[in-house]
Amino acid sequence: MKTLILVSFLVIMSLAADFEPVKYKACRSKFTVKSVEAIGCPKDPKQRCIFKRGSEPIIKIGFTPDREVDALTTKVRAKIEQTFTEFNLENTDACQGQNITCPLKPGQLYYYTQSVKVVPEYPTVNVLVNWLLNHPSTFDDPAYKDEDGKRNLNDLCILFHAKVEE
Hints:
Mean pLDDT: 85
Keywords: Secreted, Signal
Helix content: under 10%
Structural class: mainly beta
Protein name: MD-2-related lipid-recognition domain-containing protein
Strand content: 35-45%
Number of domains: 1
Order of helices and strands: HEEEEEEEEEE
Low-confidence stretches: 7-15
GO molecular function: sterol binding
Family: Belongs to the NPC2 family.
Number of helices: 1
GO cellular component, one term: extracellular region
Distance between the termini: 32 Å
């Protein structure tokens, strides 16, 4: 029931809210990223998105998969100074309640929508947001790793600048 209410809320908010384009960089994505938009961003995409502490901004990512995908996991990190800190998401299953339903078909355009809580404890600071969507099986897939065994490829990976404010 909670999931249904959250899905309904996100759908209503995405229809009523003003999404603005976000200046982003795709970072070694297998999927093709078509667009990134968010609530809380200025109309000028060259400026940072402003995320207020205590708010729950919503991001919308348009993408096309390169293959059929039956599951996707979400991870959101913020780079503050030189360290990435992971955001705590209530739902990391991108196929449940995020405007997409798996399986996803290759070459078809999808719009993934997700909110993220900016808790009052977060510092007021400029951040680099790293948004990732990956099939769970890719975490152990050698094709997604470099010769040192470090992950260097994702199904979907974007970076964008934001600022956490009071």
